[in-house]
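=== RUN LOG ===
request id: a7f3
mode: sequence -> structure
chains: 1
length: 597
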Amino acid sequence: MMMKMKMKMLTGPSSSSYSSPPGYSTLMLSLPPLFFSSSSSSSHDNSFHSKSQNFNTLDEALSCFNRMLHMHPPPSIFNFNKLLTSISKMKHHSTVVSLSHQMDSFGIPPTVCTLNILVNSLCHLHRLGFAFSVLSKILKLGHQPDAATFNTLIRRLFDEGKIGDALHLFDKMIGEGFQPNVVTYGTLMNGLCKVGNTSAAIKLLRSMEQGNCQPNVVVYTSIIDSLCKDNQLTEALNLFSGMIAKGISPDIFTYTSIIHALCSLCEWKHVKTLMNEMVDRNIMPNVVTFNTVVDAFCKEGKITEAHDVVNTMIQRGVEPNVVTYNALMDGYCLQCQMDEAVKVFDTMVRNGCVPNVICYTTLIDGYCKLQRIDKAMYLFEEMCRQELIPDTVTYSALIHGLCHAGRLQDAMTRFHEMVACGKIPNLVTYSILLDCLCKNCHLVEAVALLNAIEASNIDPDIQIYNTIIDGMCRMGELEAAKDLFYNLSSKGLHPDTWTYNILIHGLCKRGLLDEANKLFMEMDENDCSPNDYIYNTIIRGFLQNKEALRAIQLLKEMLAKGFSADVFTTTLFVEMLSDDRLDQSVKQALQNFLKEL
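=== RESULT ===
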């Protein structure tokens, strides 16, 4: 018999910035200090989980439920649990909630398992407050909430971004004597890793290693994968070695995470070593592992090596899938070898692998970058004939190709078609169109498009505004460019180095050197240090406006910072020395400076 103890009052999370869900504080006031035990679930419950009924349709399940509900005497609660689990697996969570209410109205007493199924469905329906109310019901009925109850709630709290509440609930479990299992720890660590707090996950891992509940390969892999994504490969490999030293064998997911990180760093020898180690451990690389390596080789231009990997996977009985073929096509497209990319496409079709939208988009983008627009348009129409719906990326690639080929009107037509088809343009799409409009002196249309972006749910980034400011400067609309520049802060943005360069160039072109220099001096104050491009821009501005001495002064400053004059700036200085109209004192100053170099 489990020991029952009176529990002191518990409060909601005090350090969390997240509000507690409905029912949370009530739960915390009545949570008894009992502990988990394997005996809390009967053997019948365990068999229920492993032998769930399966139904082909929801109607079959509902028909079975109604028959069970009206049987006299009613079937065991375990049969109801099996049925509810089957419906939950069909993702009909609202139905699970409704049937649970019907069971209550018929006086069928639920078990912890029944209520856990209900908690799970409520969490899937984003009704976290009601899920916590079910936890209160478990306690009122005198049942023990088990690990599954808390794991589901903690996972939902993480999914809703309520990190503080998830950790607070975990702390209360520990504080009141509940013993979390490996899934509880794994849920917490996975949640922490997903929000970028890998260091907190590692601390929890170390705490777990010191306790009675030891981490498994899933827990280690979760953190190793997060470290790899954070570019902390050394730490990931150390944890990997430590895991093996503790007698925990890595699985396919562990190896794939590390191999992906090694590929990102082009550590090909280590990739080969690790894949051989996998085979030695009787862990066969799967299609995801092979695709990771194929894609990495292709992105580095190593097409031959990528083909070798594909041949190896075929020899080992792993069939290439659409991702494999698309990686090869993308590799050829990056090398401008479109004929070879099409051959891969044809091979894929011959082998019975159906191309998807990404495959067509890859080829369309490849042709567009080579300005082979007719080929791209043919593929676009072909994918539509295959009843594949072009997505935003497809349209953006085609629009970019049309713009690059000088077919602005056709690009705008495709843009309006895209919107009419319900495809929402992204920042890439807008950037392509704005750049083309500005470079073709369609400033009015560009500003109108910017206004449309600002009125949408998309927040324009600094690159969008840089394009417009540049277009304004090109069209001589300097005052409008300055107004937009100085209003960036009201839009929650700050000018970057390129923004400054655009406006400084525009001011120099107009001969407003003092204003350009003032803006140049403000850069450091705004935590945006000038680069060599900006130095060359303003130096040329001074030279072109016969301000040679100020140009020389800035040139000295630029060289002192480790930058160098580009070919255009150097050419202007050389022309100055051969200009008979230039003041001799200026020529002398320049010659003296050149001698010092």
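=== NOTES ===
Residues 339 and 390 are 22 Å apart (CA to CA).
The longest helix spans residues 497-510.
=== END ===
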